[in-house]
Amino acid sequence: AQSVTQLGSHVSVSEGALVLLRCNYSSSVPPYLFWYVQYPNQGLQLLLKYTSAATLVKGINGFEAEFKKSETSFHLTKPSAHMSDAAEYFCAVSRSNYKLTFGKGTLLTVNP
Amino acid sequence: DADVTQTPRNRITKTGKRIMLECSQTKGHDRMYWYRQDPGLGLRLIYYSFDVKDINKGEISDGYSVSRQAQAKFSLSLESAIPNQTALYFCATSEDRVDSPLHFGNGTRLTVT
Predict the structure, then answer these.
(1) Contact flag A43-B4 (C-beta cutoff 8 Å)
(2) Which residues contact A37 (CB under 8 A, 6 or more apart)?
(3) Contact B99 A100 (CB under 8 A)
(4) Does B43 contact A102 at a Cβ distance shorter than 8 Å?
(5) How far is A8 from chain B (nearest CA, A)?
């Protein structure tokens, strides 16, 4: 069975600092990987997805993620945090069963 | 208008009551899903439907039932609500592709007292 581990349930950064949110997956074959963002009182929105076309994936709002097969990782980064990035972020994995399995989420706090 | 609409947005009910959460979509997707979100646990799949005649249990289906009334409508019922079903419930849709992302509604916050 596939699973997703997000390291750190809460990450706090200063405005302008690098954002790094970690995600590791367990899978015997390369899966499809996604990052979603959830703002307060809203549903989840897709940030970006990896589908094997390129290992470095660019998403919305300046976020990007790099697929590293050797490390089974798909970490999310943004060079400079903005106050509006404060939200909860979820990593998810999908394989041939067409269902997404979500990580437990990482709450990002951005301090002024 | 939202592509995936959930009603109600908030609901408070008492233990033992039957309630229904509704979801409708205008995206034309065949696949629809119900997830439950609890703090620190992420999202867990309750039921999913790949078309009107194909409904499947997810990882936490006990105590829940669903109905796919049409391609655009997928409702979730709690037959006899209990306090540990207090959670945020999300409906989602997707295209019929393994790499298709989910499109979420804004959620229904359910409180069972």
Answers:
(1) yes
(2) A44, A45, A47, A61, A87, A88, A89, A90
(3) no
(4) yes
(5) 11
Ordered DSSP codes for chain B: --SEEEE-SEEEE-TT--EEEEEEESS--SEEEEEEEETTTEEEEEEEEEETTEEEE-TT-TTEEEEEEETTEEEEEESS--GGG-EEEEEEEE-SSTTPPPEE---EEEEE-
- Rounded Cα–Cα distance for residues B73 and B52 (Å): 9
Q: Is the pLDDT score of B7 beyond 90?
A: yes
Distance in Å, alpha carbon of A81 to nearest chain B alpha carbon:
23
How many residue pairs from chains A and B have C-beta atoms closer than 8 A?
53
What's chain A's average pLDDT?
91
CA distance B43 to chain A (A): 6
Assigned token pair, A20: 């790094």
> Any idea what the Cα angle at residue B61 is, between residues A31 and B75, rounded to 5°?
95
Say if residue A98's pLDDT is above 90. no
**A34-50 burial string, b = 16+ CB within 10 Å, else e?**
bbbbbeeeebbebbbbb
Are A41 and B106 an interchain contact pair (Cβ–Cβ within 8 Å)?
A: yes
- Rounded CA separation A36/A92 (Å): 8
pLDDT in tens, B31-89: 999 999 998 888 999 999 999 999 999 989 999 999 999 999 999 999 999 999 999 99
Q: Cβ separation of B43 and A46 shorter than 8 Å?
A: no
